[in-house]
Amino acid sequence: MPIFEYVCDECGERYEKLVMSKSTKIACPKCDSSKHTIQLSVFAAPANGAKASNGGSSESSGGCCGGACGCHN
Question: Domains (ranges, CATH) in the chain?
């Protein structure tokens, strides 16, 4: 099931929405506006089917959620 990320054109709120069909109503949870811009989603997938390691800190790796992607202000 696809989850899309949006930013509201009216108030700037960022939110995610599970979209089951093209008829799914997309509205900002903060201001209820239907004016939005879809965002490019960033995801991680293990290469070659290998499991991701839980041994290291994501902050030291410089990857997303380590501050390098700009998601933390």
Answer: 1-40 (2.20.28)
Reading the block at residue 49, the tokens are 């089917």
Can you say whether residue 32 is alpha, beta or left, with left for phi > 0 and alpha for psi between -120 and 50 degrees? Answer: left
The pTM of the whole model exceeds 0.70: no
CB atoms within 10 A of CB 16: 12
Indicate the residue type of 26.
Answer: I
pLDDT digits (tens, 9 = 90+) for 4-14: 899 999 999 99
Q: d(Cα 23, Cα 35) in Å, to the nearest integer?
A: 15
Cα–Cα distances in angstroms (integers) from residue 27 to residues 20, 32, 58, 69, in the given order: 15, 5, 33, 26
Structure tokens at 48: 């070659």
